[in-house]
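for the recovery benchmark. tokens below, seq after
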């Protein structure tokens, strides 16, 4: 079918609009990237726009030479891996029973779970609970409070209901499979897309988390990398990375500027690498949650 002139004009306008929006979204990240490898003096003077100017890796050298940041990076990796594994297990454990039509009282449990999504105890009661459980300044303070997301339970429940045929589960049950075996041998192998979506959602959440650490951690040995990044960007706490013995204060300020940009790149690079591999599952997971309640 041939396009009319008005349709072609509309299509061109949509592509132009999308191109402009894409540039607006991508340019800040691109600028941070080129600024992190440019001469700090050129960045401060506003001479860096489209290309690096005066190649320099001083920001990365100072970052990777700082033991606290490296320890924070490893802490973040551990929080992300352990937290995501627990999150996915808890989400599957909550979503699968709610997806079964033969589970009596599932609507009541769904209501109780959804209720917690709209009404919570608040920050101070939650802090007091974490304190009374003895989780302050422990590894688990970053894992247990965010062990499951109600929204993700609903997405996975909807996937199980709409994408896994009941006949397959019934046939497995007639062959002697228990509910656990049906879940492990039938349902989960067919749930690759939604599991990938859950891994992406939870991993990004743990990787970017800093507020829980700000509330529950005071031991710097347990700090995640995002909390150190917050100190660098918001509080300008870079004394340990900036060489105070440099010739001039201006040189120290330029190094501090380079450290800021390098820290942003180092912090976001792992998630930027992960996302393209899970992008198709991400879109499908969002659509699953919108198809059927």
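predicted aa per position
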């Amino acid at each position: 079918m041939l396009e009319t002139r008005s349709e072609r004009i509309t299509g061109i306008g949509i592509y132009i609009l999308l191109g402009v929006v894409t540039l607006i979204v991508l340019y800040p990240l691109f600028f941070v990237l080129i600024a992190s490898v440019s001469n700090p003096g050129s960045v401060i003077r506003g001479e860096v726009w489209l290309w690096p100017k005066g190649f320099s890796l001083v920001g990365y050298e100072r970052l990777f030479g700082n033991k606290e940041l490296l320890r924070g990076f490893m802490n973040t990796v551990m929080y992300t891996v352990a937290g995501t594994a627990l999150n996915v297990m808890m989400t599957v454990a909550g979503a699968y029973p709610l997806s079964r039509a033969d589970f009596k009282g599932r609507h009541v449990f769904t209501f109780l779970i959804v209720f917690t999504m709209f009404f919570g105890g608040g920050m101070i009661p939650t802090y007091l609970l974490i304190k009374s459980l003895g989780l302050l300044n422990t590894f688990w303070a970053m894992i247990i409070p965010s062990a499951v997301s109600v929204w993700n339970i609903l997405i996975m429940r909807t996937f199980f209901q709409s994408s896994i045929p009941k006949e397959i589960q019934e046939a497995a049950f007639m062959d002697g499979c228990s509910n656990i075996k049906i879940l492990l041998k039938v349902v989960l192998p067919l749930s690759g897309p939604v599991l990938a979506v859950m891994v992406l959602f939870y991993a990004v959440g743990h990787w970017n988390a800093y507020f829980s650490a700000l509330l529950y951690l005071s031991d710097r040995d347990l700090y995640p990398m995002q909390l150190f990044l917050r100190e660098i960007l918001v509080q300008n706490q870079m004394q340990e990375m900036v060489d105070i013995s440099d010739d001039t204060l201006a040189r120290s300020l330029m190094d501090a500027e380079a450290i800021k940009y390098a820290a942003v790149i180092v912090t976001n690079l792992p998630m930027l690498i992960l996302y393209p591999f899970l992008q198709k599952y991400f879109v499908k997971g969002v659509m699953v949650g919108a198809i059927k309640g």
